[in-house]
Design brief:
17 helices; alpha+beta; two-stranded antiparallel sheet; 9-stranded mixed beta sheet
Length: 411
Amino acid sequence: MNRNIRAAALACATIFSFAAPALADTELKIYISSQHQPNVWRKALDQYEAKTPGVKVTIETGGNTSEAQAQYLNTVMSAKDPSLDVLILDVIRPAQFAAAGWTSDVEGKDLSSYLPAYAEANTVGGKTVALPAFADAQFLYYRKDLLDKYGIQPPKSWDELKTAAKTITDGEKNPNLQGLSFQGKAIEGAVCTFLLPYWSQGKALTNNGRLSFDHDAAVKSLALWKSFADDGTAKKNIAEVATDDTRKEFQAGNVVFAVNWSYAWAQSQGAESAVAGKVGVARLPAMAGGESATCLGGWEWGVSAFSAHQDEAKKLVSYLSSSEVSKFMAINASLLPTYADLYKDGDVTKSAPWFADALQVVETAKPRPVTPRYNEVSETIRTTVNAVLAGVSTPEEGATQIESRLKRILR
């Protein structure tokens, strides 16, 4: 393998090593996204170590986007590097990693206790290839204090959101206050950006693995997002905004409405947040005449096929995907549970009250297209969405480009 590529990949990963006693029988290394509060996962791992004498676990973190994580892991796994034992994977990736021979099957776990979408995401050819870490979906975050100030209810449609955002930003007269933030950068989040209003019109992108593309619905989806940038609801350079940029801007008090995942809640309530105690969470708005739609997210635990500690790594993954840990992470990190009963658990809803209404949203969230060529599907959509938002392509041209390229990919 090219040493420069390997070195660059390693440099992209921000590594936090937690020292383990030299006499540990087994030392495992687990890869966790820097975006998903590894400090809280560390506490869960401390509990595991206390229960499992002789096993020590260190954390390596890296990448605050799905693409950055995948790029790094692709490099490590392609090299058959045994340094990582357990990997956290975006919900779209277990099938890809299993097909590449990069993860080991994790058998012996009853998947019926999990939310069905995650049991399905981790099952390939009848085999369990990973286990759920936490559930996720996209929600509408909003400044509850500002909506209350202007007597505005959370919007049910995107048109209502645009009107509400203008009323509030005009009234506040704060040049730094954006009406809406969403993901326009050419990252995985931009795939969901495209799909939200597309699905809201009642359209599907694939049917049984084959393309089911509605050109007019695609044009309307792209035109909606471009209109937010053009009329000032969103900032002009929205094409440069990634998921954690949205989180940071909202947390700093510079956004009225934000499209984001569940992880943003805990940080919006932290000591460093300018909006702690002022945040509301609701279903995403719908297109006129349509239904609210959201994108299924979530993260999964995989065992590296190149780990020298297969049995120990599988035991750790089983623990990390347990109801006990799911509840711990819901309470302490506001990560959505993968077990339905935890959404009504008193300890969980006390920590994040909006979780009580989140289960139906997660259960009805739509998965992105399931195909072995998903990477190509993703690249097609996210780069086109980015080009439209940057003004390089029109919504009509963007819809035509997506349709043409997907026809070649999903034959």
